[in-house]
Amino acid sequence: MRLGRIASPDGVAFVSIEGPTDDLTQAVAREIAEHPFGTPNFTGRQWPLADVRLLAPILASKVVCVGKNYAAHVAEMGHSETPDEPVIFMKPNTAIIGPNVPIQLPADADPVHFEGELAVVIGRPCKDVPASRAADNILGYTIGNDVSARDQQKKDGQWTRAKGHDTFCPVGPWIVTDLDPSDVEIRTEINGQIKQDSRTSLMIHDVGAIVEWVSHVMTLLPGDLLLTGTPEGVGPIEDGDTVSITVGGLGTLTNPVVRKGKS
Ligand code: MG
What we know:
This protein is mainly beta. Helix content is about 10%, strand content about 40%. It contains 4 helices and 20 strands. Strands 1, 2, 3, 4, 5, 6, 7, 8, 11, 12, 14 and 17 form a 12-stranded mixed beta sheet that branches. Strands 9-20-19-15-16 form a 5-stranded mixed beta sheet, with no helix packed on it. It has a 3-stranded antiparallel beta sheet with strand order 13-10-18. It is globular and about 55 Å long. Bound molecules: magnesium ion. Magnesium ion (MG) binds next to strand 6.
C-alpha cells in the first residue's frame, strides 16, 4: 500500500494512493478516516491524484537520524574509521517539508549539502525493540533528505543548528508499506545530474539494528521518522537547483532550492 497525505479543495487528509505506479496521471487518492495506522478505514471519498497536492506523508513527533552509516560516505567526509555503534542525532519536526516545497538556504550558511536517505516510518508506540521484531513496529518507508549546513556542522562541533533549519528535512512523496528495504537503489540527482548512486545493502547498521538502537534510548511514536544515513556523493545545493532523490520501490522525492533573503 502507498500511504500519503494530501491537500485537496476539501481539506487535508491521509490517503491511500492507488493505481499504476508508473503512470501517476491514472492514480487516485482514497481518503482514510482519521489516521493510517493499523487497518485503515476509508471514508468513500477519492480524488484523482493529479487534482491534489501531496504533503509530507506523515506527522512526526521526532526525526532521528543515523550519521556515518555508509563506509564510502564516512571516507569522503575525511574520517578514517567507521563507527562500531550507530551514531544518532535529531532534527526538529519543524524541519519537515513535503515534495516540491522549496528547501530554503539560510543567508548565513554555506555550503549546504543534500543527503539522500531511506527513511523508516514508525507504526506504533514502541520501546526496546529487538532487531528481529523491528518490522512489527514499522508502518513503512519513505524518502528523506538530511539537508546539512556543512560550515555550521564543523563550527559548532555538534549538529543541531546545521541540520535543524526549517525546510532541512524534505520527506515523501508517500509511504510504501510493503517494501523490503535491505537492498534497494538510492540515487540523488541535482538538476538531472546523478550525484549519489548506491544501494541500501551497503549500510553499516541496517534498519533492524537502527530500530533496536534508537528504541533502546527513546520511546518511538507512530509517525516518527528514522533517517538511515546517506551514501557517498554528497555535495552542495545552490539557489535555483532541483534535488531529486529516488529510492527503488518508493519513487522520487523532488524539491527546488531557494536562497533565503535573496532579492
Ligand atoms: Mg545524513
